Q: What sequence folds into this?
DNA sequence: CGTTGAACCTGTTTGC
DNA sequence: TGCAAACAGGTTCAAC
């Protein structure tokens, strides 16, 4: 659910709600989506949340040194951060500590005002990592430009002259940080560019048109607190409103808002992609080979249901992502 | 360089 | 009604 506008919305709500609070203790549920679970338990207690920022689809909780000792600055470890990615179904919400926990609640941080900052994520596609200043800096290097701030030249440089499809480039976090499937399709529709066009096929003028479309859409979506398609709720439990303004996403078969032609869906860059076949000219060679309806079809991903049955409450404790020592 | 498909995991919707 | 497939806002990795 969370792309840039949704993450921005959550970050703003969180900023208002928890900046200045100190973390008293941490309790964990399933931890296979956490880089180093033990690090959370070891380093979070005692730290104060100094700021909440967004970086692409990540949220960054900036943490103080332990026990309020400011001016430690000696080893650079004094300032560290909690990196949070919501994946597809992640939610992070402050609740009163006494309230019953939602299902799939995997991280609870008790705060010094009696509330608990809770992270819930049914699919656990999210990610949480405790990072020192140096490790965070290294991590952030992997991502591309902020789509809201990228200049005309930067954008064109990153798109034109690439042989990948434009949809793939928009979704590539190394190119732009924060764009996901909904806003990629919406901006391509607005700029009248087919998702399967190659970056190299766009003129710099077209690239700029796409950049402006993307920025306008993201800004409006932020104002409307994001898109709530099924269950997205911000840090205050409010749904967004931008889904009412979607022009193509999820509108297969319905008339294009510009020309009434039925919106089509195809798989581009491995994702469902919605577009108007009339407004968004398909590139030559874009056969209808990527028709939906038969994507992961022949896959019998059913591993003996009883096979190596694992205990009902098996708690994996190893992070699945490689560490970076 | 690029693309595709599978994998990670769970829940909901859709179709026969 | 019931069951199984399809699908979901994301990311990563192997294979080609």
A:
């Amino acid at each position: 659910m969370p792309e840039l506008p949704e993450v921005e919305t959550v970050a703003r709500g969180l900023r208002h709600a928890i900046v200045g609070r100190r973390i008293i203790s941490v309790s964990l549920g399933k931890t296979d989506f956490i880089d180093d679970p033990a690090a959370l338990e070891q380093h979070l207690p005692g730290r104060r949340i100094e700021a909440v920022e967004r970086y692409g689809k990540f949220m960054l909780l900036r943490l103080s040194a332990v026990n309020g000792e400011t001016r430690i600055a000696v080893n650079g470890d004094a300032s560290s951060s909690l990196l949070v990615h919501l994946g597809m179904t992640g939610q992070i919400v402050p609740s009163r500590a006494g309230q019953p926990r939602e299902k799939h609640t995997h991280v609870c941080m008790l705060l010094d005002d009696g509330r608990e900052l809770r992270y819930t994520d049914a699919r656990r596609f999210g990610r949480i990592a405790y990072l020192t200043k140096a490790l965070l800096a290294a991590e952030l290097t992997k991502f591309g430009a902020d789509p809201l701030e990228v200049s005309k030249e930067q954008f064109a440089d990153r798109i034109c002259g690439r042989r990948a499809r434009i949809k793939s480039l928009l979704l590539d976090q190394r190119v732009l940080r924060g764009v996901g499937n909904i806003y990629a399709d919406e901006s391509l529709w607005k700029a009248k560019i087919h998702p399967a066009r190659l970056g190299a096929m766009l003129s710099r003028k077209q690239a700029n048109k796409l950049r402006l479309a993307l920025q306008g859409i993201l800004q409006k979506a932020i104002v409307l607190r994001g898109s709530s398609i099924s269950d997205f709720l911000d840090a205050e439990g409010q749904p967004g409103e931008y889904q009412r303004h979607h022009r193509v996403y999820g509108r297969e078969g319905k008339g294009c808002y510009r020309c009434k032609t039925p919106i089509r869906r195809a798989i581009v860059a491995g994702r469902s992609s919605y577009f108007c076949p009339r407004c968004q000219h398909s590139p030559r060679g874009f056969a209808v080979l990527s028709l939906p309806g038969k994507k992961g079809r022949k896959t019998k991903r059913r591993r003996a249901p009883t096979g190596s049955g694992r205990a009902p409450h098996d708690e994996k404790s190893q992070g699945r992502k490689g560490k970076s020592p």
The mean pLDDT of chain A is 88.
